[in-house]
User: Fold this.
Amino acid sequence: MSANVGRPKASSVVRAARLKKADTAKLIADIARGVPVAVACAAVGIHKVTFNSWLDERPDFARSLAAEKQAVILEALTAIKSCATKEREFRNWSWFLETVYRDYFAPPDKGPHINLTQNTLNLINGQTLEEARAALDEVKRIKDERRSTERGDSNTA
Assistant:
């Protein structure tokens, strides 16, 4: 039999040691308050991949992070509700929630705004450009006549 039977793998021991060494309370608090994950991880000396594996492999760590995020969100919502005067401005708290927790508090994305003007000239049945220009001039003349009759002008060309 192997001497390693029943012993934890070396990689899991190393990860557990990193979890104990790292300041998990600071990591959780920083991330909940909006510090990017990569920056918060670097501050406590771990890699972002390690953080993600802790979320996957350690439910208590994930619950602690969720609880801290909830506390920060509740703090912001309470502050927004209590902002009744100009001295206590709610916009900074709204910005915080819309930026840090955009999945929950940002206005829905209305998609890209595209303004498109399309000028198309279709030549039908072998029309020449000159024939198309003549037809366009006729359309313009008819529109002008309609406008002048709507205004009450008696002079029409």
